[in-house]
Amino acid sequence: MPATQLALDGTVPTSRARQRADDYETWVAKVRPALVKAAKADKPFMFWQILRDPRLPLAPDPAHDPGRLAATLHRDGITRTAGYGKTRDKSAVQRWRGTRALLEGRVA
Question: CB–CB of 33/50 below 8 Å?
Fold first, then answer.
């Protein structure tokens, strides 16, 4: 077991690296509330903008899980498309916003 350098106050420092979720269901349970909150703001957003929050875990399969969740939220009537935006590397991605049903409280 590697040695751990204690902080000056004697506590064990927490890792600053984001943790990867163990499975898809665990990841969804942690990130879905942040995405629903963004949808309720009724402003266009892109999933990558919300998911880059360092307090949220990384997806177990980052190439596929965010798209899978986006499709689920859209199918559940929580989000609707709102044009396109760009990623940090200038790739085109879907923008989203909350549906009227979400804003009126008919879906959660």
Answer: no
Fold of the domain built from segment(s) 24-103: Arc Repressor Mutant, subunit A (1.10.10)
SS3 annotation, 22-46: CCHHHHHHHHHHHHHHHHHCCCCEC
> Helix, strand or coil for residue 16?
coil
Instruction: Mention every residue, 6+ apart, whose C-beta is less than 8 A from residue 64.
Output: none
Give residue limits of the domains in the chain: 24-103
Model pLDDT for residues 63-103, shown as the tens digit of each residue: 999 999 999 999 999 999 999 999 888 999 999 999 999 99
Q: Is the pTM of this model over 0.85?
A: no
